[in-house]
Write a structure and sequence with these properties.
The protein is α+β, with helices and mostly antiparallel strands. It is 44% helix and 19% strand.
């Protein structure tokens, strides 16, 4: 693992950053009615519906009715009624006697933007970084121990950026190291054990420096090197990790400086947009 505190070099572009008791024949109407029940302080249909969806979201092989009722905390009759209403809406699909997340939830999920303001501030700088470095560039965040893309640019002729499949492999990447280390709410002892507590402390001691970058020398994926730097909100919390990835056995010498410079550019844009929205 390498932690590099890079200084600005000639490679850097110096531009400034600018509850319902009976089943309804109209499931969607029944679900909406639950909103008022919830607002009155009782457990409404919407609460139950989301309990069903949450349970199914963690069951890749689906759930039978008994297991679905247990996982959602609902009575079996309620779980069945709600699940069938959600099936009618396309939010849940039933295959045989098992329930799964439905296509409608998938479509809605793809519309989710983790942070629209961050995306707006980062799109142009990320694109510029990809063009300047001829590398795959992205800004990503950590959500439920998984990397989520805010925005990315992949130059023509490059493969798409690989995605780790679990918490431990996420932390092996430069992006994951930046995001885990910058989250001060996580105790060092609870961080992924692919690195020792001493190594995690080392990153945390340096991650707030002006030009701090983490370099991945093929630790995560063979034949891939990358450099990653933190992007900061004005209040000092980490907004995300900016990463440039190259298909190479060596990290280009200029890459850490380019990434650090672009990360500062995005941080400055966040400060400006935050100040503007406060006016």
């Amino acid at each position: 693992m390498t932690m590099t505190l890079a200084s600005t070099s000639n490679c850097v572009d110096n531009r400034r950053p600018a509850s319902i008791g009976v089943a309804s024949s109209q499931p969607h109407r029944a679900l909406l009615t639950g909103a008022s029940a919830s607002a009155r302080g009782g457990r409404g249909v919407l609460d139950g519906a989301f309990a069903i969806l949450d349970a199914l979201a963690h069951a890749h092989t689906g759930l039978g009715l008994t297991d679905l009722a247990r996982a959602s905390g609902l009575a079996k009759t309620s779980a069945h009624r709600l699940a069938e209403q959600l099936v009618a809406l396309g939010a849940v699909q039933r295959v045989g006697h098992r329930y799964y997340i439905g296509a409608r939830i998938g479509r809605l999920g793809r519309r989710w933007q983790p942070d629209p303001l961050l995306r707006q501030a980062a799109q142009a700088p990320v694109r510029d970084l990809a063009m300047q470095s001829r590398a795959m560039a992205s800004l990503r965040i950590l959500h439920d121990d998984a990397l989520r893309v805010i925005c990315t640019t992949v130059p023509c002729g490059h493969a798409y950026m690989p995605t780790p499949i679990d918490r431990r492999s996420t932390a092996r990447t430069a992006t994951g190291r930046v995001l885990y280390a910058a989250d001060r709410e996580i105790d060092t002892a609870l961080l992924p054990d692919c690195w020792t507590p001493r190594e995690w402390r080392r990153i945390r001691e340096s991650i707030g420096e002006l030009n701090a970058t983490v370099i991945d020398h093929q630790e995560a994926f063979a034949g891939i090197c990358c450099a990653s730097a933190p992007v900061w909100w004005p209040n000092g919390t980490c907004a995300g990790a900016l990463t440039a990835l190259v298909q190479s056995t060596k990290c280009p010498p200029c890459l850490p400086d380019l990434v650090a410079h672009t990360a500062r550019r995005i941080s400055a844009a966040l400060e400006q947009s935050t100040a503007t929205s406060a006016c």
